[in-house]
Amino acid sequence: MHPTIGKMLASEFGNGCCRIVGVLGKVLTVTCCLSMFGQTTVAATPPVSAAVQRFRAQGEIFEDLNEFYSTFKFTPVEGIGFQEGVSRRDPTSVIKVGDLYYVWYTRPPEGLPVVGWEEADDTHRAYHWDLADIWYATSPDGRHWTEKGLAVGRGPQGEFDARSVFTPDVLVADGRYYLFYQAAGSLAQGYRRPGPSKFGGDFRNNVIGMSWADSPNGPWHRWSQPILQVGGPGDWDANVVHDPSLVVREGKFWLYYKSSPRQPGLLLPGQEASKQWADLRIGWGVAIADRPEGPYVKSLLNPVICGGHEVIVWPYRKGVCALLIQGPEKGSLQFAEDGLNFCPMAHGLDVPEAAGVFREGNFTDTDIQPGQGITWGLFHKLGPWNYLMRFDCDLSLPNGEKKRHEYEALQKWRKE
Predict the structure, then answer these.
(1) Cβ atoms 325, 351 nearer than 8 A
(2) Taking the model in full, what pTM does it have?
(3) Is residue 226 predicted with pLDDT exceeding 60?
(4) For an engineered disulfide with 204, which of 140, 145, 157, 191 has Cβ 3.0 to 4.6 Å away?
């Protein structure tokens, strides 16, 4: 104890009756006992650790009472699982039409090797998603799938989608089906990241395209122009617009997407890095439209999530949930009541990669029916030949209601 503090306490409270148990910020915390003269003092507020401060201030909840926490179980599927020489990746949200579940995914032609951007040509892929089309499969139970074939192919030579169409998501609206997807026009857009691996990188500057159909089995009608394009040179989404995923809320269509800014060392000739966003490697934004066909207007709050990689979002109650597999909040499930201001609600999750969740209700507006949450979906496993697997969890609204009631009852008891 500092001698000056010791003298002060002895003078104030008497012979050694008090002791310092901690200093928090500028507040001295003291406990006092009964003095030898029979005098009693009132104990000061006990100290609070940084961990407890976070726990209280951020409203953290342990797993068993947290409606946003779940373990994930991963299992193989039949029909679109591992197959030598075939890549299937980036599944859409899963929907149910009649007695069948439907999913769409990226699928390049069989047997085409990935050789890296510098060696790629018309028959050799620069990336796993190069020279790809969008295929689909159906299932009666979500475990045994039948691959049905091509849904949306690449566009005409010279168009924005001539080289590859990939990483799709589906939307059901007004009796129609819409597929949103990344699109690349030519190999000249390619960009290889510096480093030891020749397989890294991506197309620059790819866009998001769209096709529509009156049936989930097609035929699909190609929209002649991109639905969403990259931002300006200094914008956070100047490089790419990736991984479209749709939520319907407030009578509008919310298109969430991934992007990254222009960073030093990752530039095409003639490009400048964005100093404002140079510390953001990857993030998610949202663009909103009155109709599925657009026009989509990007939110002024973008990016709404820092990190994330493949976009995994779904409606829950009146808001939107997001599952992050990368970045400073890796392994977290986040929630935004307004669809824009996301906060981490659960941490340390073993997250499925590039998951497409089963959309209970097939995109019903959350103003009409609260988002029902998720219980299963599909995701991809990486390797020489990418393939699809199934995940199961319990992030359903009924389970969430049960946990919320239990937590609220506990808090009420604490305050009585």
Answers:
(1) yes
(2) 0.87
(3) yes
(4) 191
pLDDT at 170: 98
Please identify, in words, the CATH class of the domain defined by 63-407. mainly beta
Alpha helix positions (H), 16-161: 50-57
Residues 20 and 46 sit within 8 Å (Cβ to Cβ): no
Tell me the C-alpha distance between 56 and 336, whole Å: 20
Q: Give 127-183 pLDDT, tens digit per residue.
A: 899 999 999 999 999 999 999 999 999 999 999 999 999 999 999 999 999 999 999
Q: Which residue has the higher pLDDT, 268 or 208?
A: 208
**How many Å apart are CA 143 and CA 219, to the nearest integer?**
25
- CA geometry: angle at 151 spanning 219 and 293, to 5°? 70
Q: How many CB atoms lie within 10 A of CB 124?
A: 15
Place of tokens 């029916």: 369
**Omega within 30 of 0 (cis) for the link into 205:** yes
In angstroms, rounded to a whole number, what is the distance separating the alpha carbons of residues 76 and 72? 13
Least confident of 16-25, 207-216, 265-274, 395-404: 16-25
Residues 336/337/343/348 CA torsion (nearest 10 deg):
-80
Could you tell me whether strands 176-184 and 356-357 are parallel, antiparallel, or unpaired per DSSP bridges?
unpaired
Beta-strand relationship, 371-381 and 313-317:
antiparallel
Domain locations along the chain:
3-47, 63-407
Q: Residue 214: its pLDDT value, please?
A: 98
Give the separation between CA 393 and CA 69, rounded to whole angstroms: 9
- Return the half-sphere exposure (C-beta side, CA atoms, 13 A cut-off) of residue 299: 19
Cβ neighbourhood burial of 174 (10 Å; 0-12, 13-18, 19+)? exposed
Report d(CA 329, CA 347) in Å as an integer: 8
The answer to whether the beta carbons of residues 43 and 32 sit under 8 Å apart is: yes
CA atoms within 13 A on the CB side of 29: 10
